[in-house]
Amino acid sequence: MPELPEVETTLRGIAPHITGKTVCQTIVRQSKLRWDINHNLADILQGQNLIQCTRRAKYLLLQFPIGVLLIHLGMSGSLRIFSEGETPAPNKHDHVDIIFNDGTCLLYHDPRRFGAILWYTGAAETHPLLQHLAPEPLSPEFTPQYLHQALQNRKSPIKTLLMDNKIVVGVGNIYANESLFLAGISPHRQGKNISQHEATLLVHHIRAVLRAAIQQGGSTLRDFVNSDGKSGYFQQQYTIYGRHNQACVQCGGLILKETLGQRGTFYCPHCQT
Prior knowledge:
By secondary structure, the protein is an alpha+beta fold. Helix content is 24%, strand content 20%. The two termini are 28 Å apart.
């Protein structure tokens, strides 16, 4: 599943190639994604100039003069850019093409169809999917004081809370596991029992692992243009995630795995308390 670094990398990969250009054609081959694509989308976007591309949580926002196109990559979605004359024949998972006046094509590919392409005529921040989201983890608003206060009176496990979009957005399963390990905090700890010092450690490590992933993803930006590869998806070396029954990099003990909040949770019982 694309997490925040992959979505940010996608944004950086596509934005320079389409910002400021005018849509001349939109082709919807499959409208049934997580939610149905507006059946008038082609007419709506016709002749519209793309003002800017931004991101909120895992949503990509394509801003036009008359509204915003929200794109979510779901479980398996990706976006690629093709220059004029380079767009390949569509396969069964290539669901939407947005073609611009210079021939550039933005192609949405999604084998599992859990993603979304939604048209909205209001300000992006007022969309029902966005209006109640918590701060971005890399934003100035995500401070140790904010996190500590948000966790007060919360009895849920800290790992589950870090993945709650009402507390902080975009900290997916991988980065919750990694951040908790680096901070030395058990994923089972109740949120209300996280101290101010531990909140400071968590904010630091959440930011560090996300920034490192985004930086690593930067090396894949070329994969967004005229490429058949999985755009912007990159493998990393993790300290804890995916290392079930392997030796802990800090103490050499065995890394355990269990399901917490329906997600795979990896931890070292010695290093994380």
